[in-house]
Amino acid sequence: MKRRTVLSLPVAAMLTAAMARPAAAAPTARRRAAELLGKLTLDEKISLLHQWQPAIPRLGMKAFRTGTEALHGLAWLGKATVFPQAIGLASTWNPALIEQVGSAVGDEVRGLQQERPKGWGLNVWSPTVQLLRDPRWGRNEEGYSEDPHLTGVMSTAYAKGLSGGDPDHLKTAPLVKHYLANNNEVRRDRTSSDIRPRVYKEYEEPAYKAAISADVACGVMTAYNLVNGRPCTVTDLNNSVRTWTDRALLNVTDAWAPNNLPATGSQKYFDTLAEADAAILKAGLDSFTTDDTDPSKTIAAINEALEKGLLEESDIDTAVGHVLDIRDRLGDFDEDGGPYGHIDKSVIDSPAHRKLARRAATEAIVLLKNAGGALPLNAAALRKVAVVGPLADTLYADWYSGELPYKVTPKEGIAERLGAGATVTAYEGVDRIALKNAATGAYITAGGAETALKERAGEPGEAQHFDVFGWGQGVVTLRAAANGKVVGMRDPDGSGPEGNQFFNDQDQPNGWFVSQLFKLEAQDDDTVLLKYSGYEDWFGDSVYLRAREDGTLVLGPAADAGRYTREVVKDGTEEAVAAARAADTAIVVVGSMPFINSRETDDREVMGLAETQAALVKAVLAANPKTVVVVENNYPTTLNWEQEHAPALLWTTHAGQETGNALADVLFGDANPSGRLTQTWYRSEDDLPSILEYDNIKHDRTYQYFTGEVLYPFGHGLSYTTFRYGRPRAVRDGVEVAVTNTGRRAGAEVVQLYTRQRESRVKQPRKKLQAFRKVTLKPGQTRTVTLPLSRDDLAHWDVTRSRWVVERSTYELMVGPSSGDIRGRTTLDVRGETVPPRDLSRVTRAENFDDYDGVRLVDEAKPRGTAVGAEAAGAWLLFDDADLGGGAKRLTAQVAKESSGEGTLEVRLGAPDGKSVGRATVASTGSRYQYAEVTAALSGGTGRQAVYLVLSEGLRLSTFSLR
């Protein structure tokens, strides 16, 4: 039987909040920062607004730079401890561990403070808290979860480690990025994310707010995209982000984003850079990340804005005051560097950090499937193990990774664990080929660091052999057998003299413009064209390799492309199959190359394994049924065939230097897997709407609203032991449930609490994560787990009154190991509010609709405000359950219409094509930002009604009333 508890509001108010607001912070500006501000000249103050702040010797101020990358370790500054990617850190569901990781990264950032190399600074640009609502997003690896609560908890833990936990004495000054609603790379500086109030308040805002309101993050970086038609770079932070804490925040733009705003940029939101930069400061940003190390354009634009009256010196003082406050709290004005000034370079890649990296990589691993107890492997019984696949004996860094100080590959970790008593072999399962010009008989021949690839006559040897790695959709990389280096173009942006030639001189695909990508396009005459598929904007999308007269390979059009015969020197699949057949067990390691498959600037189009990798998995499984499949990538994958046929499936992100040891720990049972998925794994791309659709509620996104059948649910992850859940019960401070380890191994369970509101005025989530607890239990051990839940956790945003509301309803409380595996339920009757009918006689903002079709959310004015714009004729907005009383007599609305001609705004009841009770004619206002009041007489509408406003194409509606 389910336990029913009646929760009155006074009792509910006493429940412990999952993430309580901290006590009032200390004053936002310290005395020393205020004193320095008073001593600075105007020119000196303006110089501090750029990312690269110069030294001011007369005041004893050193040079300062915002923005050290520290996503999962200290990046771009040489060798440093590389922890699992952010998505992997979150997969541990262990905030205490993630805080330790953040602290280690903060120490390593501090470790360079005596040297202060170029590119280093104590303001770190991490964590990334964008919600992973669409698994195709190119930057999926950088975020934590599709869930705002889990993201908030993990980002707060990481930021607390980075900052040191004392807001008055900062180890580093982390900021969260990228604000707001940035979850697509395609046209990311031109697309606008439509975020209606419920989506913002219930989904988006909590992820950004958590670490800032806890005073462990010190600001935000704004995103490239627009939200509701307004660039995030000029989105008002003063009335949003800055209200979340009483402390000063240092808010920064993303790189080069200010230059997108003027007429010369991609967004063309302002005429001049001076107008744009003025708007940036007035919006609540303090630092311009633009033009690399050159501040001159920013300084000139700010001075022009001052001269034209677009800015006052007080605006400069406000921003610089924030900068100085953060620097002061970092100890930047202390001779000894403050409490963390003693940390030196010895902390980087220290033994303690290596141990922590291994633990984090181990806890990040998720056991997806384990049929018949296929895992853990019995090390004592194994004599021959084949580790196969393109990731079997390599580790890859990503764009925001540090330089790996050492590498323990999967093969190396397994071999180390098994020792001398077993033979461990590694085969990548890729073909080795030679490419022969069908017309001349010459072979493509490797060059090296000093010489470019050329066609050379003669019999093929090692210099003519290349290993072909498939990464999906026909894209391959070529690795020269002669030196083991990857083939790519130098200077792919065309900036250098070698930008049209190819060299085999890279350890892995890399760079902002990834140039190591090709396609072998089959022709009717059994030859192939070698298409360049790297960064194509400089060359067009149809460029191929051809040989000059001296044989050097360069780019050219398809008509001039060389036609090559593909000669297979070694069949990689056959080699892997033979090894697997001869082994006691085979371990296939497949996955992604993080510079190729999904990264910044590049969203995924398909969600499966690369075709060549999927074929390899099938072939190896056919050869040896005792095969374990390890998927190493940074996003959900449609592993439908693999889930059905493979006896055991493990997933890990790119987990850093200790990946191989961590895998071995889990494969052989030295560690019991405890990672859990932080995203829904779908069965098909067809389960998702367009990546540009941001309304989770309307489009049934994430586990909260999705109604289809999933491959793996949010929170999924298996263990080598089993757990039994008792009957949950609501208690004063949350929900209690007894959990028992019923297996024969110690293990960690992630106990998850979800809620569902049964009755509501509006569409509610099917499930909503409210709390979780990771607990470790010995065999037979039982522990009562308390999961916090407060009255406020049950609230949703009421658009009829623009405030939070807890409705009178029955709430289901569900506990289990995942959103798809609920082990116990109880209910809670809450004596909350009943939302009254809408009162449309009051001025109502159009954005506060209940449903819609054919509209976009748009900027009401450039500084602030959201309106609704009709994209097509017949667009409509629903304002449900409106009380028209004895009959509304007049429609009054604020409407803009930029295009010429007349439009209409019509009031209908019951449906978009229901009874018409009035229509207003709207004349052109000449500007999208010029609003005019229109009115119309109403007749025939009384009582409680579903009111529809039907708009003609091109109208913008900001507010209205029916009286």
TrEMBL record:
Matches recorded under Pfam families: CBM_6, Fn3-like, Glyco_hydro_3, Glyco_hydro_3_C
CDD domains in alphabetical order: beta-trefoil_FSCN_BglX-like, CBM6_xylanase-like
Signal peptide: 1-25
Domain CBM6: 841-963
GO BP, one annotated term: xylan catabolic process
Keywords annotated in UniProt: Hydrolase, Signal
Family designation: Belongs to the glycosyl hydrolase 3 family.
Record protein name field: Exo-alpha-(1->6)-L-arabinopyranosidase
Lineage of producing organism: Bacteria, Bacillati, Actinomycetota, Actinomycetes, Kitasatosporales
